[in-house]
Structure formats: structure tokens, C-alpha cells
Design a protein that fits this description.
- The chain is of the alpha+beta class.
- The chain has one domain (about 10-100).
- The protein has two helices and five strands, in the order αβββββα.
- The chain has helices at about 30-40, 85-100; strands at about 45-50, 55, 60, 65-70, 75-85.
Length: about 110
Amino acid sequence: MASDNPSAAGLTSCKRHEDSLASNDRGEPAMSDELDVAADEECRFEIFREVERQMTSTLFSGGDWHWQLVTTSGLILAEASGYPTEQTCRVAVAVLQRRAAGAPVVAKQGEQR
């Protein structure tokens, strides 16, 4: 049975955008008006595998699994990467679906922004 522990599912690898937690389908940070519209839109999780590419003769990048929470208009609200298998990626999404709505928002200790 899968763990409900988010760090066990790899959720600690969530990416952060400098200016916003969301980006549009062009990869630009979302503006507040885009986020206001997104609040009323349906969302879906997209799961995909990064294309593996050769960086040097012995170094490769990619091949890991990613998820994105995307609105119907293409606004990326959240994303994470680094899952070694599709199954671990799907487990992370399942944990989010079950647990995120009731999760409190707290400031992480030791970080200043």
C-alpha cells in the first residue's frame, strides 16, 4: 500500500517559480488576474516523462516522471519532477488529491523571501 507521507512520495521536489507559484503555458509567471480566473476553472493533473537527452558522452539528463496541475486554459498551478517511475509519480498525485485540500498553509522555518 502506498504511503500517505508526501516526502516519501517525492513531493519535496516541487519546483518554485521566483515570482509566482503558477505559470502560463508559455512558462511565464502568472499574473494575479490569471490566478483569479483560474480559481473558477476546472483543473487536471498531467503526468508525463521527460525526454532523455545526452549532455556529454557519458552524462544524460531527463527520463524522469513529472506531474503538473493545469487549468483548462493551460495555466500551470503546480508542478513536480524527479520521480523515477510512473507509479511513484501517480502515487504523489493520489496523495495530493486525498490530502491537499485540508492541508494548512504555514511558513517554512529558516527561510526568508
